[in-house]
Design brief:
- It is built from twelve helices and 14 strands.
- By secondary structure, it is an alpha/beta fold.
- The strands form three sheets. Strands 7-6-8-5-9 form a five-stranded parallel β-sheet, sandwiched between helices.
- Helix 7 links the parallel strand 10 and strand 11.
- Helix 4 crosses helix 5.
- Bound molecules: S-adenosylmethionine.
- The site of S-adenosylmethionine has 24 residues, from helix 6, strand 11, strand 12 and strand 14.
Length: about 375
């Protein structure tokens, strides 16, 4: 049963009669004039002949269609669109699901309307950090009870969630910010729920990687989401080396206390590629800086405030033809001119854009 149903205003449980037009007319009659409603007729499942409508608040209502509860009526204020979402959720006991719900990265207005409805409607919210997320639920007026689902208890949390789902209770999964399971706990819970044969319903929404990519201006056709690099220098450089020839944009998450050394390592491994630094997305000090790697490193160094906050680092992919022989041709000329390996590879990299370390390795081979 949906919470709040018992508190529904007079509109609740009124039979809208036999058809979509009547449903709409009844809705219009019972909602405030200043809500400026419009019914998005083409989005409504008009196969529903008889609907009972319960208005829970100004944003959500439940339709009883063929005895089944449908969730998703969304009256908007002043000229907004109203409609039954074509994928309206049936939060009935027979189909309790795990809803994977993204939450804002910083700006609360980025919580989608659907996410809001789910967080208000489910009896349980599994959260990475219950203390961190309880103000959000409070603000939404969600009466859901919380259970912890963090990286140290994911197996146990998954078992509890499966238990709830089997008992017919819907559960929403959230992390501290962004999309659960994306460099955040959640994947194990989802895997266990799927393995138990229960339904998982993903909601689209905030994710730092795609938010940064959308504003990066990088033209690579493909991208590879890497997430966090290893925190130790040696392992980090090794990981970067392994990515050197990837012909797609590379997307990393990084913590503020490591951003400088990571960008320095990137400059050493990748040579002059474009780096986009996306910092504090959706927040007051949102900054998106783009430039050649070494210049981007200088930009970061030049103001310690630029090293604060949360970061997505996006690197353009290996240039097309990075391995087409141009780097090697120039390298051979420079070596033949008597330049030492280190200097020749550095110069050849600057001239051709081919990664310095790749040329260095090649130079060592050529020298025999
Ligand atoms: N699940 C989240 C998502 O969907 O993006 C990511 C969680 S991960 C633990 C946290 C990292 O995401 C941060 O260290 C940072 O790299 C990135 N991030 C989160 N919020 C951000 C923001 N507002 N601006 C830039 N990067 C952010």
């Amino acid at each position: 049963m949906l919470r709040g149903e018992h508190d529904a205003p007079p509109f609740a449980r009124r039979d809208a009669g036999g058809g979509a037009a009547e449903i709409a007319a009844t809705a219009l009659a019972y909602l405030d004039e200043d809500q400026g409603l419009a019914i998005a007729a083409d989005e409504v499942d008009f196969a529903a002949a008889h609907a009972k409508i319960a208005l829970h608040d100004t944003l959500t209502a439940t339709f009883q269609i063929d005895g089944r509860r449908r969730f998703g009526f969304a009256p908007a204020r002043r000229g907004g669109i109203v409609g039954l979402c074509p994928h309206a959720h049936e939060m009935t006991e027979e189909s309790a699901a795990l809803y994977v719900v993204p939450t804002p990265l910083g700006n609360l207005a980025d919580l989608t309307r659907r996410a809001e409805e789910i967080l208000r409607g489910v009896p349980w919210v599994a959260a990475e950090d219950t203390r961190h997320s309880s103000p959000l639920l409070k603000q939404l007026g969600s009466p859901a009870r919380m259970l912890p689902a963090h990286q140290h208890n994911e197996h146990e949390a998954a078992a509890r969630i499966v238990e709830k789902l089997r008992a017919g209770e819907a559960v929403a999964l959230i992390s501290d910010a962004g999309t659960p399971g994306i460099s955040d706990p959640g994947a194990r819970v989802v895997a266990a729920v799927r393995a138990a044969g229960c339904k998982v319903v993903p909601l689209p929404g905030a994710c730092a990687a795609t938010t940064a990519l959308s504003a990066s201006g990088l033209l690579d056709e493909h991208f590879l989401f890497y997430g966090f690099l290893p925190s130790k220098g040696g392992q980090r450089r090794q990981a970067l080396e392994a990515l050197r020839e990837q012909p797609c944009a590379l997307v990393f998450y990084e913590a503020p206390h490591r951003v400088l050394e990571t960008v320095a390592d990137m400059a050493a491994v990748f040579g002059e590629r474009t780096l986009v630094i996306a910092r504090e997305l959706t927040k007051l000090f949102e900054t998106i800086h783009s430039g050649p790697l070494t210049a981007a490193l200088e930009w970061l160094k030049s103001d310690s405030n630029r090293q604060r906050g949360e970061f997505v680092l996006l690197l353009s992919g290996a240039p097309a033809g990075a391995d087409d022989g141009e780097g090697e041709r120039v390298l051979k000329l420079l070596l033949a001119d008597g330049l030492p390996v280190k200097q020749a590879s550095k110069l050849a990299s600057a001239i051709t854009g081919v990664a310095k370390n790749a040329l260095y390795d090649k130079a060592l081979l050529l020298k025999g």
